Amino acid sequence: MSILLKKTTHNIQNQLADYCRSGELKSEIPGTRPERLPHYRRLVFNVIRNTLEQAFPVTHKILEEEEWESLVYRFFKEHDTQTPQVWKMPREFCQYVKANNFGEKTGRPYLNDLLWFEWLEIEVHTMPDEDPGPTTQNGNVLNDILVFNPEFRMMHLEYPVHASSAANAARLKGSYYVLIYRDKVTGAVHFIALSLLHAFIIEQLVENEMPLITLIPQAAEVFHIEDLEELKNNLVAFIHELFSRKIILGFRPK
Amino acid sequence: MKPGINIGLGLRRNLVDDFLERSIIHPDFIEFAPENWIGMGGFWGRKIKKAIELYPVTCHGLSLSLGSPDELDLVFLKKLKTFLDENNVEIFSEHLSFAKCSNAHLYDLLPIPFREDAVKHVALRIRQAQDFLERKIAIENVSYYTPVAAEMDEATFINAVVEEADCRLLLDVNNVFVNAFNHHYNAEEFIRQMPLDRVAYIHMAGHNKVEPDLIIDTHGEAIIDPVYELFDFTVSQMQPVPVLLERDFNFPKMEELQWEMNKLRTICTKHWSHVNIIEKNHA
Predict the structure, then answer these.
(1) Running DSSP on this structure, what letter comes out for residue B33?
(2) How far is CA A118 from CA A131, A188, B91, B230, B271, in A?
(3) What pTM does this model have?
(4) Which residues fall within 8 angstroms of residue A107, CB to CB, at 6 or more apart?
């Protein structure tokens, strides 16, 4: 706490901020015009609500307006927003909803997945540019190290919110993997649904920078696959698809 | 920024392509909130880089919360410094208000109580931020809709902070108009009381009258004539500084924004043209 700011002034500022967050005035704020305070509450709350509605258009549409408003209201009142960059604040909203189990409480078990999926689209779209490092177009899919476009996020979902309407997704609880990625040239964001095997392959290739050929026996063991030739063909076809989508950019020069 | 008269326009995402094309709008410089662009890559990252290559840049911060009772956010300050340095930002300004309190951001500008202890507290924070950023900050006089436990008037508060912090002033003429209307004081007299020799640049914008006795500073409308008149008076009282037109939403056709910039330039030229002549003679 500042040594220069008197406790009275500090408290007055706290009172005003608390009122803006909650809309509740526990006691009169000294030296203010009470009829003007609701304008501050409205202006501040509108920033929060508009930012969240832009970030989560699907969630906003699915929830009843009253329900949405109430959720945003509670978030702003109860959660201490930490980021100084308002466009990153929706990430904290995802965390808040998950931590407070709102999905289960409101009969929408897919809510966490849906919010996170919507947020990751923004996160990937805006994430800092990342250098994939030295890359060549000459190489062998099996034997050379593959260079991935680093601008992606892989997510595990319990509900297929990427592929179904919310009502359908709620009935399809399972295990789903999605890769959300940004086209290096256009900056556009796309996603691709993955099997568990393919998610595993991407994770291993990115983390360990190993050639696909050395990963095949490991994948066969983890997934109890006996036919290595079929596995190899499957993975080579998958890698070609990643090339065509520009998720793989080329090969690491030797 | 070039010598003489500079009329800028606030860069907003919706308008980026118009700034890059330069077919209708021709600002001398641009301004944007660094918070909206720090760490931004991809499509938008490329757009802002192009804009920065084309125009001189000023940055207008939103989240430093210089008037906050909380500690300064040193992590954010570090990111801010890197951004300002890397992008050759000519002037950095922030608001004389607070946007964070009790460890939570509110993302809007709350009024600081005009009190002696607040002067000392805010001035210290501005000095600390200036030291960290290794540059002067221009602090903006903000619109406010209610006084908060004031012990002095707004002009006294601003002067005291600017003096004690040894910072610069971003004089928002629309905010002076709004506050003069909302709190019943004389806007020209207020301008006279400002430390005009410390003004780094001027903001101009539109506003909304939401009640018979209340104007909200929205930046969503065209500038009205009485604000142009106050601007004319302000310019007549001081030496040339850059002038920025702010428009945050409810965007009109680009021709209308250019028309507003032209009008600002005409007023500046009326009072500051002699400076141009002197500069040319010196050259």
Answers:
(1) -
(2) 25, 15, 36, 46, 52
(3) 0.94
(4) none
> In Å, how far is B138's CA from the nearest CA of chain A?
19
C-alpha distances in Å from residue A254, one per residue of A149, A209, A225, A243, B100: 18, 12, 31, 19, 52
In a domain, B176, yes or no: yes
Q: β-pairing, B208-211 with A189-194? A: unpaired
In the block, tokens 């992590």 appear at B75
- pLDDT for residue A3: 85
**Six-digit token string for B190:** 């207020």
List pLDDT tens digits, range B134-190: 999 999 999 999 999 999 999 999 999 999 999 999 999 999 999 999 999 999 999
Looking up tokens 């202890």, which residue turns up?
B117
The pLDDT tens digits for B203-247 are 999 999 999 999 999 999 999 999 999 999 999 999 999 999 999
ipTM at complex level: 0.94
Beta strands in chain A (DSSP E): 146-148, 152-157, 176-182, 189-194, 248-251
Whole-angstrom distance, CA of residue B59 vs CA of residue B33: 6
Contact B101 A80 (CB under 8 A): no
Burial class, B179, CB count within 10 angstroms (exposed 0-12 / middle 13-18 / buried 19+)? buried
Q: Are B109 and B145 in contact (CB under 8 A)?
A: no
Between chains, do B106 and A20 touch, taking CB under 8 Å as contact? yes
Q: Alpha-carbon torsion A24, A29, A34, A40, what sign?
A: negative
CA dist., res. A183 & res. A152, Å (int) = 9
Chain A residue nearest residue B34, CA to CA:
A85
Instruction: List chain A residues with CB under 8 Å of B218.
Output: none
The answer to whether A219 and A200 have CB atoms below 8 angstroms apart is yes
Q: Between residues 138 and 177 of chain B, which touch chain A (CB distance below 8 Å)?
A: 145-150
CATH number, position B266:
3.20.20.150
Tell me whether residue B1 is in a domain. no
Q: Which CATH number characterizes residue A216's domain?
A: 3.90.930.50
Q: Tell me: the pLDDT tens digits for A109-136?
A: 999 999 999 999 999 999 999 999 999 9
Average pLDDT score over residue span B77-82 = 98
Element spanning B168, H or E? strand B168-172
Residue ranges making up the domain that contains A189: 127-254
Tally of domains in chain A:
1
